[in-house]
Structures are given as C-alpha cells and as structure tokens.
Amino acid sequence: MSTHSYSREARIVPIRQKLADIDWVLVGLIGLIASAGFATLYSAAGGSFSPWAGPQMVRFAVGLLLLGAIACVDLRVWMGLAYPAYAVSMVLLVAVEIAGHVGLGAQRWIELGPLQLQPSELMKIALILALARYLHGLEPGAISRPFHLMVAAGMIAAPVVLVLMQPNLGTAMLLALCGGMLLFLAGLSWYWIAPAVGAVAIAASTAWEFVLHDYQKARVMTFLNPDSDALGAGWNITQAKIALGSGGIIGKGFLGGTQSRLNFLPEKQTDFVLPMIGEEFGFLGTVALLGLFAIVIAYGIGIAMRSRSQFGRLLAMGITVNFFLYIMINGLMVMGLIPVVGIPMPLISYGGSAMMTVMFGFGLLMSAHVHRRIDVPRHSSGII
Amino acid sequence: MALEEKHKSRYGTFSRRALLLSGGMTAVFGLLAGRLYQLQVLDGDRYLTQAEDNRINLRLLTPPRGRILDRFGTPLANSRRNYRVLMVPEQTRGGVKAALDTLAQVIPLNDRVRARVLKEAVGGKSFLPIVVAENLEWDDFARLNLELPYLPGVQPDVGETRDYPYTEELAHVLGYVAAVSPDDKARDETGDPLLDLPGFRLGKRGIEKTYDEKIRGHAGASRVEVNAYGRVIRELERVPGRSGEDVYLTIDRELQSFMYQRLKDDSAGAAVMDVETGDLLALVSTPGFDPNAFNVGVTPDQWKDLTGNDHKPLVNKALAGFYPPGSTFKTVTALAALEAGVITPDTIFNCSGAFSLGSHAFHCWKKGGHGPVDLRQGLKVSCDCYFYQVALKVGIDALQASARKLGLGAPTGIEIPGERSGFIPTPEWKRKTFKEPWQLGETLVAGIGQGYILTTPLQLCVLAARLAGGMQVNPRLVHSVGAETVARGNPEPLPFAPVSLAAVREAMVATANEPGGTAYAWRITEAPFAMAGKTGTAQVRVISAEERATGIRSNESLPWKLRDHGLFIGFAPADKPRYACAIVIEHGGLNSHPNVQLARDALLLAQKRDILGRRPAYPVTAADARL
C-alpha cells in the first residue's frame, strides 16, 4: 500500500459511494439529541413551536444538509482550506474588535445580509483545522521542540486573546482547552505539560490574590454559595438547581415544569436548557440525555482512532473534544459546579450560530470518517 | 522502513493519549451524573418544596365589614361603594404621565395626586395597578366608564370604604376605623392576618374598636400561581371569607341627632336611658368630629383644628368629662339622710341665706335665704342651707356610701373604651393624699355636690335612672351582635327603702311641675308626659367676699371659660318613669337654662316616639317584650 494508491482511489470515489459511507447511526443519534431539544423548546414556549422550536428545527434541517455536504468533501480539501479559514477567522475577529472600539458597541458578530456571522464561532472550527494541519505536518515528537510548540501555542493564544477582549470568557476557555487537548493528543512531552498545568494553577491563585477586584471576587463567592445572595447574582444558579432538583427521579412531566413555565428559570431556552429537561424528565431523563451525548462522543473517538492520517485523527478528535467541552462546561455551570459562563448545550440550546458550528463540526467528523482510509500528504493536500 | 516506524509510533502516542482523554471525559460524565443524583434524587424533595414556594402565593381576601345599626335598623356605619380609578403602567399608551394628562380631562386630578402616582409608577412593578383616585362622585365615575375606550391602562374599580352617614352626631359612640399602626400590630393578640393587608382598616374608637373582631369578619384566602415577576397566572383554590357581623345599638338615631343638633355649638355631654333596661337611647358629646375623615386619613390642618379647639371635640364628654354634680347631688344627700334616719321628709331646717360652721359662713345661692325648708321644698328650690345642715347630720361616710350605691365614683361599665370613673371623696383618701384630716366644712360642700366630687354625664344619667326606677340599672349601648343578643343580668333593686326613694322622686316632680320649682319654667305641659328632675349649677370659679357684697356677677356677663356649668338630671313620665336623662353643658349655667330646655324636649321626644308604636328592629327578647 502506498500513499499514492489511496489518493488516487479517493479521487474516483463517487458521491453516492461517499453518502453510503456516512455513519448513519451517528447521524441518527445526533437527530435524537436534537429532537429532545425540539421537545424542550416546544415546552419552554408553553407548548408552542414558536418562537423557538420551529426555527430550531429549520436550522437543524439546514445543519443536516450542511453535514452531508461537508462529509462528502475530501479530507484533503479541508486540509487545504485549514490555514485560509484560520486567517479569515482571525481577520474577522480583529474586525469585530475594531468595530467595537470604533463605536458600534460591544459587537460579537458581523451582519451578512440575513445571517449573523460570529467570528468566534468560526474560529472554533478554524482553530481545530489549522492546528490539525500544523501538527499533521510535524515529524513525530517534533511538537515538543520549543519552536514548533511556540508556533502552535501562538496559533491558540492569538484567537483566545482576541475573544477574551470581546469579552467572551466562555468561548475563550473553550478555544484554549480545545487547542491544549490537540497539543496533548499530538504527543506533547509531559515535561512541557506538567509545568504548564502548574503555571496555570499559580496564575489563577495569583489572579485571585492580586488581580481580581472585590466585585469580581464577590461574583465568584456568590457562585460558591449562591444562597447568600438568592435574589441577586445567585438567582440563576439557585433557580437552576431548584429546577433540576424539583424534577426528582422521574420529573414533572412534559410541559409540566413550573420553574421554566413561570419564568423562575432564566435563559431556559438557551444556556439553562438542561435544568428544564431535568425538571420535566427527572434524573432518568437527564442521565439518558447525558448517555446519548456520551455515545456520540464515543463514536467520535472511534472515528479518530480509525483514521489513517494524523490530520484526520486530530480533526476528528478536535471536533469530538470541542463537543465534549461544550457539554462539560454547560453541565457543570447549570449544576452549580463552576461559575456562569455563556456556553450553550450543543444541539439542545436555542441559537443559530452554535447549531451551525456544531453541525459543521459533525460534518468534518463525518468527512474524516468517510475518508478515513485516505493517506494525506505531509505538507500539501495534493488537491488544493 | 523508518517512515513507517515513525508513523506507527505517532499513531501509538495518539491512541494512548486519546484513551487517556477518554478516561478523563468518562470521569467528567461520571461527575455530572453524580451531581444530578445528588440534586435530583437525594435533595429532590427539598428542591420540590422550594419550587412550590416559588410558584404559589397565598392572597388574603378582605371580608366586608359588618354594619352598625340603631334600634330601629337605621344604618349608622355602612360599607359604602368606593368608586376608584386604578392605572396599570404597562398598559398605558405613551407612559403614565401622558395617561394622567388624558385622565385629567375626564376626572379632577390635582398636582399632589399626579406626583404620588408618578412616584409609585417609578418604584413599582409595571403590571401592578396604582390607585389614582378614590371616593369619586358617581357622575365622574360614570363619565370615566364612558371614556374608557380612549384611556388605555385606566381601570375603574368599585371597592369598599367605611361610611358614617350621621358624621359628628354619632362620632363618639361609633368611633372610627383607620389604617393599622405599628402599635396596633404590637398590641394585637388575635394574630389575624388581615392586619397585614395593605389598605385594611381597624376600629380605633367606640363601638368600632370594642366590637372590632366581630365586625371585622374573617379573611378569605386565595391560593394563586404566580410567575417569577409576581404576576398571577391562575387561581388554584379559593376559601371564601366570612363577612363581619352587624351590631345593633340601643341608640335611637332620631333622638341622638335631635340632641346633638341642639348641643352642637356647646361643649356638652348628655345621655338618655331606659330606666328599666339601662338601654341608652342617646349618648351625646359635643362638639363631635367627622369620623369619615379618619378613614381616609386626617390632614395636618384637620388635626390641628381638632386638638387646638377649646371645646375639645376629641373628648367623649359623656363618659370622660369630669364635672362637679352641683345641686343634682342634693338628691343623693337627701336619700342618704332619709336612709340614715337622721331626717324625715318633714324635718325642717331654717335658711337665713348663710349657715355658719365655726368661723366660716357657708352661703345659700339665694341672698336673704329661703326661711323654714323641708325636704320637698329643699330640693324644689334647691336650698343650699337646708342641705348643709342635712349633710352635717348624715356625715361624709354615709353620704359617699349612698353616692356609690347610686352609681357615682365608679365606671358604669359601658361597652365603649375611654370611660372615666369620676370621684367620690372619703376621709381616708384625704388623709392619704393631703396628710390632713377631713374637715366638717368639706362635708357641707359635698352635700351640695361641690368640692372634691366629680361625675360624668353618663353617671348622672345612671343616678337619674336609679332614682326613677329604684333598680341598680347599668347603661348599655349594644343590643345584639349578629343574631346573638348580648347577655345581661336583671338589675337588682337598690338597697334603699321605697318610701325614701318615693320622697326624693316626689320632690323632683315638684321641682319641674310646681310654681317656684327651679325647673318649673321649662316643665312639660302635656300631663301624661310630665317630667321630674333636679337642676344643678357647678361653680368653676371662686366668688370673693367683695363680689358677694356688691352682687355676684351674672354668668352672661362673664367670659365663657369662667361661667358655671349647667346640669340637669330628670326622668319622665313623672308618675311612671320610663326614661331618664342627664345633661351637662360646660359653662352653660345661664338664666335661660338651655340644659333644662333640652331635657324637656328630649324626654318629650323620647316618649312621643315611644307611643308611635315603633318596635325595635333587632330580635326582641323577653327583656325587650316589656317595651
């Protein structure tokens, strides 16, 4: 077997064959999770498709088409697009940053006719692509060399800093963690990892002592003990916990959640959608949903493991880790285990940008699956 | 092949690290599931309670307050419809300010109201109605309803408010209701949740206070589901309240109004009482005040007028005004002497215009004296010298004991708060208070109702009723609460010999019916209604020796504050007493005797209303059947 034979073979794979190669079980699982989301949004609106469930279904349908289309595009094409996508995302990030400074207010998106483009969402995909391509091009073990590490770390740090300045702590965290995981998967030496983790810990405690203002500390303390300020900053966390907890084992039933229906639960259709599911479907329903998420993640890891190319592996794993991080941060947040940062529950929370980003990601994951046997050249895609 | 080796080692590294990462992710999922277990399974009940607390609100429903009615069923205190205008800020078009401008074209709105509404609109939740105006005239309210389509956010509302149709005339009997004060809350022992309700009115004086718990009723409750902003979504359960009970008074509203109107420019206390039952047909204190003003809240100006007035409109003089009984007390002195056996009705004492005791001369009101005087004459012409000598024979101990038996010197136990007990002196009291022995001269002064003795008009009315009926009657104002008649014992006979009482009564008949009697000029001329009585004049200043020599100044020529009090006790019909009355007009001891004139007219009116055959509206009991 040579690399040439694979690439040649890939060129002649017809679209119909590619569609057949898509893992339809995984697509079904994604659809199942999204459907749970539709039901929840339907209930959140008091038993109505408007204003949330209907548009969300349309978006998911569009997202499915997007997934299929992306899955059919050759992995090498995506590798070829990795750096340009990253560059475009960076430019757009800088553009919104400047726009914000020029006086249009704190803006996180760019208007494209009817669509709103959030550069930070774009960057979630672009960073994975670009890092996967860069790490794919390195000799094994080369990532631990200072120069390569600096380049990779810089690729992560640049968008993280820009997103932090928006300010969007949640997304910045997501980007940093996702990027870090890719370096870890690419084989970054433990001699780098251990001091890095230590440095982060020291930086955090130093920030707590010397950098954070009193009101910021108060915010953190409120998170640690929300009951101390139940009507103020702790309101969201307290009400989310009440919603989750009052669901009990089997829940109050579909359309039966009082916390959400009477608006005690804030942001029930977006960030705090999980407590609403917990309230209506109880412990069993919530754990079942987490189980579906876990299966999807397991599929993602499986796809990564079966990928022949390092690019495919890192891309698939990057997408999977990104998906996992969404769930982790949102879950920990609504259960009162970390402070509130604006990260939605993927496939469930209402919102167009997040849905498109997630479906685009699944498209890339599926592309890695469809093209898992392709050997991708080290430095150029061979197509673009 | 080296490349292949490297490729494999790279794949190996990736696989190991991916597995490691999978382990981490599994741990995180475990953490999430564990946390869910803790929140939903272990603490689920606690959070369920909190969720229910969130959504369910208990709202109290104010019960309608019971009415207060007179003996014929005339409402004296009502719950009146209160036409109000409410405004819901979120429903207005163009804001509250613009809505007020439009509203001002329909109903009158002053700047103070506008300022208050705007302030409340800023502070409150935009879906909660603000009270813009209350107690609207029907015309304004009707016009408002007509214009409603052009007034978005404006809500007409019919509430309830307390109304006293006879305002000042019954203010001291009925009292008033007003907003609950922190003091009321602190004193409250019922724990009634109504007291916490905004806008709730509590009985503050009079019958409204004494019977507040009965009149108030019981709160209903409504369990409602509310959303996070406090808006009511739906009612889950409603427990209806119980309206307050009606209170029937023994008062005859027409007699009360009649007497009030006659006395309204004076500072006076008066009462008319049923001799057999003690039922008060009238209990008047003037000047009164408008109890309706307290319901909406007295303005500082109104309060200054009420407290600064030298006629003291806030004092219920019928129960709390202290007056020396003056000559009306001579009936007590006479009865005490007859009972003690120190005189008979025929015992004669001489009046030379003054009576000397030691070095001190005690003067009669009549310069030159009355000559020889017996009991009948003594009371009829109110001879002071006669009673100085009678008092001297009786002694202070027997005198004060008789006074107490006749109802003086102790509270009568009337149902409304604020009663004072008056004062009957004893030698022991004098020793304790002044560290001095009792002087005989003080007994003489007490014998004509001056000195330390103080009485209230209500006590004097009880005195008149006891003299007239010979029974130990006590006054009462409340006949029944709801369907339940207020229990009352049958009065005992007075511990006096009937002949003694008859002698005093006969003298009182003579006083008001025979030429020369002090009340003869103002007698009732229609024979079957004839009254008996005793006049009284209580001095409020010291008359000096020079003034006595040059001629005592007439009350008419003195400033109001220095004039004598005018008193009268009486009963009618003279031969078979039914009604007793007592009247005290402060500084009203004038030659025209307005006090006797009023007693005459009031007793006549009471009797004439009686023969009209009107029956009380309240359930008639055995005791009432005699009426």
Give a brief rundown of this model.
Chain A is mostly helical and 384 residues long. Helix content of chain A is 70%, strand content 2%.
Description of the structure:
The complex is a heterodimer of chains A (384) and B (627). By secondary structure, chain A is mainly alpha-helical. Chain A folds into two domains: 20-72 and 212-377, no CATH class; 79-211. Chain A is 70% helix and 2% strand. Chain A has helices spanning 3-11, 15-21, 24-44, 53-72, 75-104, 119-137, 146-164, 169-185, 190-211, 214-224, 235-246, 258-261, 273-306, 310-334, 352-370; strands at 110-112, 115-117. The radius of gyration of chain A is 22 Å and the shape is globular. Chain B is an alpha+beta fold. Chain B has two domains: 59-249, Penicillin-binding protein 2a (Domain 2); 253-305 and 315-477 and 491-625, Beta-lactamase, CATH 3.40.710. In chain B, 40% of the residues lie in helices and 18% in strands. Chain B is built from 24 helices and 21 strands. The longest helix of chain B has 41 residues, at 2-42. Chain B is elongated and about 155 Å long. The chains are: A mainly alpha (384), B alpha+beta (627). Chain A binds chain B through residues 139-140, 181, 184-187, 239, 241-249, 258-259, 262-264, 278-279, 282-283, 286-287, 290, 293-294, 297-298, 301, 304-305, 310, 313-314, 317, 321, 324, 328, 331-332, 335, 337, and chain B through 6-7, 9-11, 13-15, 17-18, 21-22, 25-26, 28-29, 31-33, 35-37, 39-41, 43-48, 50-52, 54-55, 225-229, 233.
Layout of helices and strands:
The complex is a heterodimer of chains A (384) and B (627).
Chain A: H1 3-11, H2 15-21, H3 24-44, H4 53-72, H5 75-104, E1 110-112, E2 115-117, H6 119-137, H7 146-164, H8 169-185, H9 190-211, H10 214-224, H11 235-246, H12 258-261, H13 273-306, H14 310-334, H15 352-370
Antiparallel strand pairs in A: 1-2
Helix pairs in contact in A: 3-4, 3-13, 4-15, 5-6, 5-7, 6-7, 6-8, 6-14, 6-15, 7-8, 8-14, 11-13, 13-14, 13-15, 14-15
Chain B: H1 2-42, H2 44-55, E1 56-61, E2 68-69, E3 75-87, H3 95-104, H4 111-123, E4 130-133, H5 138-147, E5 154-163, H6 171-174, E6 177-179, H7 182-187, E7 201-203, H8 206-210, H9 212-216, E8 220-226, E9 232-239, E10 247-249, H10 253-263, E11 268-274, E12 280-286, H11 291-296, H12 300-308, H13 317-320, H14 330-340, E13 349-351, E14 354-357, E15 360-363, E16 371-373, H15 375-381, H16 384-394, H17 396-405, H18 427-434, H19 440-447, H20 457-469, E17 478-481, E18 484-485, H21 498-513, E19 532-538, H22 545-550, E20 565-572, E21 579-585, H23 594-611, H24 622-625
Parallel strand pairs in B: 2-10
Antiparallel strand pairs in B: 1-8, 2-3, 3-4, 3-5, 6-7, 8-9, 10-17, 11-12, 11-21, 13-16, 14-15, 17-18, 19-20, 20-21
